[in-house]
Amino acid sequence: MGIKENLKKIETEIFDIKEKSGQQDRIVQLLAVSKTKPVEFLIDAYECGQRLFGENRINEAEIKVPLLPSDAIFHMIGHLQSNKVKKACQLFDCIQSVDSLKIAKKINNSCLELDKIMDVYLEINIVNDVHKTGFIIDDQFYNVFNEIISLDNIKVLGLMCIGAHVSDKGIIKESFNSLKQLSEDLRVKFPNFKGEKLSMGMSSDYSEAIEAGSTMVRVGSSIFGIRK
Ligand SMILES: *Cc1c(COP(=O)(O)O)cnc(C)c1O
Questions:
Q1: What pTM does this model have?
Q2: % of the chain beyond a pLDDT of 90
Q3: CB-defined site of ligand 1, < 6 Å
Q4: Among candidates 30, 73, 33, which has minimal Cα distance to 55?
Q5: At what angle do helices 101-114 and 139-149 cross, to 10 degrees?
Q6: DSSP per residue over 133-159, as a string?
Q7: Is the distance from CB of 203 to CB of 222 less than 8 angstroms?
Q8: What torsion, rounded to 10 degrees, do the Cα atoms 38, 39, 45, 47 define?
């Protein structure tokens, strides 16, 4: 199947899952994860009406972003190195992979220079796996969180996670439920914090993520084909 059919199929599935889980009224956005794919694929998707794209490397984004019309929206979803922050702030409309206070402060400083406010998500290591990126939720996290939401040139829209990497759908859904719960807890603890968005769900697990309350699924291989 081609990109057009894939996009249609996924949009329909998202609609059906929302209906089935009684969430017709919630908006679930589709981020087309185009990392490693040629720019022609992105243009194809754009011509089908897709506007949201996800990339994970600065060098790759530098080539692709200028080749898409200016209303295409790019989200950074990969781990960001300090020395690439400034470039990332120039290229991207949103950074979903904020995984440390240090990176948050760097983004804030770069955006101050660029006179812009960056939309971000905080990436949460929801399965507490030391080999994965993202914040681990311990006592210290709440202090760090408080510092991040006080930065003036970033706006924390919500939380992002990668679901548990297991085959048991119940465990995967549990990990998404935990992210939703964390998001609610944070809004109780920090009444000034309004970030309700939840970026969760990929090709293999977006149904579970939507059932658990995802507001954005990040889908790559089911749209553009498997990556080598
Ligand atoms: C690659 C990637 C995706 C998309 O993965 P697929 O399995 O191809 O849908 C989503 N989120 C992140 C953070 C990724 O790195």
A1: 0.97
A2: 97
A3: 33, 35, 56, 77-78, 162, 202-204, 218-222
A4: 33
A5: 0
A6: -SB--SHHHHHHHHHHHT-TTEEEEEE
A7: yes
A8: -140
